[in-house]
Write a structure and sequence with these properties.
Blueprint (H helix, E strand, L loop, with lengths): L2 H11 L3 H8 L5 H13 L3 H14 L5 H17 L7 H14 L2 H17 L3 H9 L8 H17 L3 H18 L2 H13 L5 E5 L2 E5 L1 H8 L4 E4 L4 E4 L2 E4 L4 H13 L4 E2 H9 L6 H18 L3 E5 L3 E6 L4 E5 L7 H7 L7 H8 L3 H13 L3 E4 L6 E4 L19
Parallel strand pairs: 3-9
Antiparallel strand pairs: 1-2, 1-9, 3-4, 4-5, 6-8, 7-8, 10-11
Helix pairs in contact: 1-2, 1-3, 2-3, 3-4, 3-5, 4-5, 5-6, 5-7, 6-7, 7-8, 7-9, 8-9, 9-10, 10-11, 13-14, 13-15, 17-18
Amino acid sequence: MDSLITAAARALKAGDPLGALKRIALRDDAPALALRGIAMAQLGELGKARLLLRRAARAFGPAERIERARCVTAEAEVALAARDLGWPTQALDEARRTFDAMGDHGNGLHAALLQIRRLLLLGQVTEAGDALDTLDLRAAPAMLTARGELVAFEIALRRGRAAPASAALARAHAAADRSGIAPLCAEVERAEQSLALPAARLIVRGSERLLVLAEVETLLASQHLIVDACRRVARSEAREVRFARRPVLFALLRALAEAWPGEATREMLCAHAFRARRIDESHRARLRVELGRLRRELRSLADVEATPRGFVLLPLSGEVLVLAPPIESPDASILALMADGEAWSTSALALALDASQRTVQRALGALDASGKVRALGGGRARRWLATPTGGFATMLLLPTPPGVG
């Protein structure tokens, strides 16, 4: 490798894309194309970066397997930054196998972290955690160590575990300082700030207050009956009942919990669970059926007892506490995904939310009308931007699939 390519690579590693481009901006050989692509990505020109990286991958010969794999990995990182979650992951899997076969452990680790970050954007927290557990970051370069610890922080945060999140951030901070990369240090500092932001609302006996993550973790370990509206579960100490796929039952449970220690009337329960404005005998019959199912689900945690006007929730131990998201709106998950400041396509949002594109388009239209998001471009190239939701740990507003933990 010639001296200009070496100098440009060192500049990129130090986070100086302009310094790299000064050396190779007019060159079209394969190594220069690859470095130019990485430089454009660092400058935010993601479309140009992907084109340059694809040209570089084609320019490398069949014998240059590891160089082509590096181009594929760099394009995958650009696709992730562009929130192109539909990017074909098979190419990254093949690149990772090439790195392992050729002994390039640093780039293999980098490719693995990209795969895990994609899983997190798709809400697959358990899968991301399992994949991270298989990686060994002890001998990794400082930059990759910091990236890996930031991933560990996000996993812990999404699981509601303050102590592991704080420990991961401390390790990420130390690694980022060793790397000397200013944007990486700034990213760690932004992550640190989220630990002090409200993560949930506690609703009990008709009053509510905001909690930070450490307070949420302490609450979840208590003996009280916690109706967790963030993850749609009911728990008390080590016992837990999931309602992620039972929205009607959870709506009934939450209405009963918010009314505790008083009763929830039949009209109130039907309005919460069935969205019924006028209650007739069919609603009352359905309510009896659904409450019978709820009793069976809750038998290890609480009972539901009938009263003359409705029903009351009776916990087996402690009080009944409701843990709700810091903000609640039909579009909270979309705003949480877009709070990272990146430009999202409709298809990427639909993939991350496990919703239809039409549903996401309607939500974006409403948010656009209210001034909360704005569109860039048109047609298939349209992207959506939103200002970050201030004052809340937005990562905890992201959708969590059943079985996360």
